[in-house]
Amino acid sequence: MSLLEARGLSKRFGGVQAVAGLDLRIAAGEMLGLIGPNGAGKTTVFNLLSGFLPPDAGDVRLGGRSIVGLAPHAICRLGLARTFQIVRPFPRMTVLENVRVGALARHPHAPEALAHARDVVARVGLAAREQVAAGALTLPERKRLELARALATEPSLLLLDEVMAGLNPTEIETIIELIRGIHRTGVAILLIEHNMRAVMALSERIVVLSFGERIAEGAPAAIANHPKVVEAYLGDEYVRAAPA
Amino acid sequence: MKWALGCVLVALVALPAVLSSYALTLFILIFFYGFLGQAWNIVGGYAGQLSAGHAAFVGVGGYTAAVLSIELGLTPWIGMLVGGALAALLGAIIGYLGFRFGLRGFYFVLLTVAFAEICRVAVTNIDALGGPLGLYITFTGNPRQFQFQDGRAYYYIALALLLMATAIAWAIERRRFGVYLAAIREDEAAAEALGVNAFKYKMLAMVVSSFLTGLGGTFYAFYLFSLQPNTLFGIPLSVEIIIRPIVGGAGTLLGPILGSFILTPLAEVSRLYLGQEGLHGAHLIAYGVLLIAVVLFLPEGAYPRLVRVLARPARGGR
């Protein structure tokens, strides 16, 4: 059975069909990449899965249970955690306090949650910065904090929305290692990423979205040369001009 | 820290022995407005939901206890709890409307002000509640009637109210409830994504805050022996409630108390001296100037700044 299964997921914003009848399955412990050109509907898919937007049609099942209509906090408690593309730290809280908010979802007693948060902060490599106010962090540190907070809710499925955007190649290498480490502990990961090298290196399977529809799906190597994918990213003229 | 706290408590308990009656009144007002500020702080400070109509809870609490006492002879000590419960019910209604329909910022402010004004206009027009003239409580000096020959009793009650609200705020701050309120204040969507039921915790904060504020209504009524809709439900009282925690530091445990120690004497002095010169309401101008100064220079309030100033020499010295 799939850990997460979306069927016929659709969302329209006025005249724009952001997501159109999307089917998506993620197995337990899987690492799935979700790619597509700007405006393809990737972030909308995240918002639909995590309960931040209600779908116009379709169903989402997490562990066999429908989660459509549940509030984001309830979905989080069922084991689906997400990060935001534009990071949203609690700026006046310290790094440790930020992560503690996530940890409290599983450890309702504040001292326990704090101990758990400290572990997670160390895991993402922010131990030396745990007493710093989140508002004072650099962008790479904020991305790690975003990851740490989601991780602290002990998800079975983690939705990562462009955690590498704005990072330099060295920082990307370290965050790739970090994501691999999380994946090794058995957490399924759904990754939205614009950095192709990273998404190819990490994903076991990739789904390509364009104008809200799934246009391709498969192993990273197959996806990279898929004509529809090349077309979606570079335009059909490029496909015709390029030697096969 | 514990020693310092103990010393302050002993000093506050011993203080009435040496105070003049004017100073005693001043301390009663400092404690009472500090208490109301602390009650507001739970929803307005910790949870960051700016209620600007907290006078409504004072009014509901005060009128309930007064009517129960005058009409049914029920002791205000119990009427106080009934008033608190009714205020909490009103808080739950306002909170439900505001939070269920996602009113944030100015819209929530307007909603709370509107409810307070509705209550004020309604009470003004209900003859059974005394209409615009309000209710008067006959002085009996009977402690059972929440009345005391000795002004020091009011001092201890106001102090107890302040300590109780502060203990509740302290307990909230240390628990998951308080952490969640802070997360909601900082970024509600991010908090939701981390498993925080924002609606539930905002409602809880509103109910606790309005209940405590409602208890204050009984004190207000039985300390002044009179209740008028314009004073108990009016916008000026709501401003008095809000301004102390904001000046002192909203969302901090000692902010409302510090704010009350700064503002209450200021208000009394300006009321006394400027009022004598015929400049009634001049203390409101002083409030306005002070509020502008705080927003400009101490946006977090006085308490966080004080902590930093006090921490500095300690760090340098050791």
Keywords for this structure?
A: 244 residues, alpha/beta, Rossmann fold, 2 domains, six-stranded mixed β-sheet, 10 strands, B: 318 residues, mainly alpha, two-stranded antiparallel ribbon
Helix-strand pattern of chain A: EEEHEEHEHHHEHEHEEHHH
User: Helix coverage percent of residues of chain B?
Assistant: over 70%
Quantity of strands of chain B, as a count? 2
What is the percentage of strand-forming residues of chain A? 15-25%
Concise synopsis of the structure shown:
The complex is a heterodimer of chains A (244) and B (318). Chain A is of the alpha/beta class.
Verbal overview:
- The complex is a heterodimer of chains A (244) and B (318).
- Chain A is α/β, with parallel strands linked by helices and 244 residues long.
- Chain A has two domains: 1-79 and 156-244, P-loop containing nucleotide triphosphate hydrolases (Rossmann fold, 3-Layer(aba) Sandwich); 86-154, no CATH class.
- Chain A has helices spanning 42-49, 72-77, 95-103, 110-123, 139-152, 169-184, 196-202, 220-224, 227-234, 236-241, and strands at residues 4-13, 16-26, 31-35, 57-62, 65-66, 80-82, 157-161, 188-192, 205-210, 213-218.
- In chain A, the strands form two sheets. In chain A, strands 6-7-8-3-9-10 form a six-stranded mixed β-sheet, with helices on both faces. A four-stranded antiparallel β-sheet of chain A has the order 2-1-4-5, with helices on one face.
- In chain A, helix 3 packs across helix 4, helix 3 (95-103) packs parallel to helix 5 and helix 4 packs across helix 5 (139-152).
- The longest helix of chain A is centred in the last third of the chain and has 16 residues, at 169-184.
- The radius of gyration of chain A is 18 Å and the shape is globular.
- The N and C termini of chain A lie far apart (38 Å).
- Chain B has helices at residues 2-14, 21-46, 55-72, 76-100, 106-124, 152-174, 176-186, 188-193, 198-224, 229-232, 235-248, 255-276, 282-297, 302-317; strands at residues 135-136, 226-227.
- Chain B is mainly alpha-helical and 318 residues long.
- Chain B is globular and about 55 Å long.
- In chain B, helix 3 (55-72) packs across helix 9 (198-224) and helix 4 runs antiparallel to helix 9 (198-224).
- Chain B is built from 14 helices and two strands, in the order H-H-H-H-H-E-H-H-H-H-E-H-H-H-H-H.
- The mean pLDDT of chain B is 89.
- Chain B has a domain at 20-234.
- Classes of the chains: A alpha/beta (244), B mainly alpha (318).
